């Protein structure tokens, strides 16, 4: 995929290429660890609206945002949430139609759907494929029913296995699923069993996420009250390192901190575009966007990239969309420093790292200057052939390195970069 990204992420074509993210706001239930923007459908709730009403508003919002943006080529579409697989396949058809009517959507563009592995949703997968989905991301999280119960998931391990098997028939070589480690009462041996089970079932892509206990969640309350025991830090490290080595031995490469693929073509086009600083349009309640602003006479300049955050609740979002054509509650004009910090924070999570050609979109300073000024040990961060990247060891401790890099950008480049785009 390297040639693909070289083509679409250069200074000449940046403002005309982008991705679309569609946020479905509803879930059947709230998982104990989740703090995402999502709502449980209840007919008498003030924020509940029918699928058709939400779909039509999403179509209207996307039409308006595309017309106001400089994006001419959409390289990927991602339906996330919430749980978009509980929605209707018609939403996919409508969104892809709007994109095709307003700009170019390649015939082989990646169209991903997040799916919950219940039997009901597994039976809808063929309809989603017919609607235009060509890649699935299945939220398995664990193959142990006792751990799924702790997480308040609405599927069983048996349902997860069925969903994966059916998905692979319908979407050959285009099925990914998620697992979470460092779960309450999960031992290293239990995690090893999950990984080995995953390898026996998986296609060419796996995502492995460490559990984060978020304030305000049911899980946080249970942990604070001593009802659940979390693994130790040493156990967390052992779990992750075992998974990385085991997947490597079985033909997978780690192309991002939490994502593993057998081949370059198995990597997520959408996520890579975001990690490498690309534009993306967020549609739906709570969705985020990064879009270059367009001025009269269709003039667009990357220094006018905006960060947008949509109203989180469906009712408020609908009011905004019907009132002004989009659901954005907050719009921030990003400074060069903002864009540089974002790019470093996301690109260093990947095997490709930060590339000088893409860095040039946001800065006039050599990328190597950051490497030298940060003075991080070469066993963690290296600079070679115009590329600034984390080593295998560095990726494992990236969260501890990023604050140092971000501070370097703020301290060293802010005085000169403030006038870079003037």
UniProtKB/TrEMBL annotation:
Which Gene Ontology biological process is one annotated for this entry? porphyrin-containing compound biosynthetic process
Q: Which GO terms describe its molecular function?
A: 4 iron, 4 sulfur cluster binding; coproporphyrinogen oxidase activity; metal ion binding
| One GO cellular component term noted in the UniProt record for this chain | mitochondrion
Keywords of this protein's UniProt record, alphabetized? Chaperone, Heme, Iron, Iron-sulfur, Metal-binding, S-adenosyl-L-methionine
Q: Extract the SMART domains matched here.
A: Elp3 (SM00729)
PROSITE patterns per record: RADICAL_SAM
All copies of the Radical SAM core domain together span 12-253
Q: Which Pfam families match?
A: Radical_SAM (PF04055)
Signal peptide range equals: none
Q: Which family does it belong to?
A: Belongs to the anaerobic coproporphyrinogen-III oxidase family. HemW subfamily.
Q: According to its UniProt entry, what is the function of this protein?
A: May be a heme chaperone, appears to bind heme. Homologous bacterial proteins do not have oxygen-independent coproporphyrinogen-III oxidase activity. Binds 1 [4Fe-4S] cluster. The cluster is coordinated with 3 cysteines and an exchangeable S-adenosyl-L-methionine.
Q: Return the protein name.
A: Radical S-adenosyl methionine domain-containing protein 1, mitochondrial
Species this protein is from: Armadillidium nasatum
Tell me the lineage of the source organism.
Eukaryota, Metazoa, Ecdysozoa, Arthropoda, Crustacea
């Amino acid at each position: 995929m390297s040639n693909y990204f070289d083509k679409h992420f250069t200074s000449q074509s940046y403002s005309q290429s982008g991705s679309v993210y569609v946020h479905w706001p509803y879930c059947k239930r709230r998982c104990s660890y989740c703090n995402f923007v999502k709502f449980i459908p209840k007919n008498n709730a003030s924020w509940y609206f029918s699928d058709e009403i939400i779909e039509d508003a999403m179509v209207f919002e996307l039409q308006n945002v595309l017309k106001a943006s400089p994006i001419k080529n959409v390289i990927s579409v991602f339906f996330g949430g919430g749980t978009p697989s509980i929605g209707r396949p018609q939403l996919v058809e409508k969104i892809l139609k709007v994109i095709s009517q307003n700009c170019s959507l390649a015939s082989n563009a990646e169209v991903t759907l997040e799916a919950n592995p219940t039997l009901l949703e597994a039976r809808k997968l063929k309809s989603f494929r017919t609607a235009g989905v060509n890649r699935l991301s299945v939220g398995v999280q664990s193959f142990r029913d006792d751990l799924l119960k702790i997480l308040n998931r609405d599927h069983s391990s048996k349902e997860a296995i069925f969903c994966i098997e059916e998905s692979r028939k319908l979407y050959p070589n285009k099925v990914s699923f998620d697992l979470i480690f460092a779960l309450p009462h999960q031992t290293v041996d239990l995690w090893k069993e999950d990984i080995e089970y995953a390898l026996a079932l998986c296609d060419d892509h796996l995502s492995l996420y460490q559990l984060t206990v978020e304030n305000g969640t049911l899980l946080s309350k249970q942990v604070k009250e001593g009802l659940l025991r979390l693994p130790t830090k040493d156990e967390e490290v052992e779990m992750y390192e075992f998974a990385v080595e085991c997947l490597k031995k079985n033909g997978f490469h780690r192309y991002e901190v939490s994502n593993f693929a057998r081949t370059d073509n198995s990597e997520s086009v959408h996520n890579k575009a975001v990690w490498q600083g690309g534009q993306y349009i967020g549609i739906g309640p709570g969705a985020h966007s990064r879009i270059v602003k367009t001025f009269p006479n269709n003039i667009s300049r990357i220094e006018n990239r905006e960060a947008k955050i949509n109203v989180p609740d469906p009712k408020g979002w609908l009011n905004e969309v019907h009132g002004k054509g989009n659901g954005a509650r907050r719009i921030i004009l990003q400074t060069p420093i903002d864009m540089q910090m974002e790019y470093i924070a996301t690109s260093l999570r990947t095997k490709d790292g930060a590339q000088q050609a893409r860095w040039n979109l946001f800065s006039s300073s050599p990328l190597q200057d950051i490497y030298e000024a940060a003075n991080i040990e070469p066993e963690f961060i290296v600079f070679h052939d115009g590329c600034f990247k984390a080593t295998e060891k560095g990726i494992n401790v990236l969260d501890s390195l990023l604050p140092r890099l971000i501070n370097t950008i703020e301290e060293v480049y802010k005085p000169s970069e403030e006038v870079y785009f003037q």
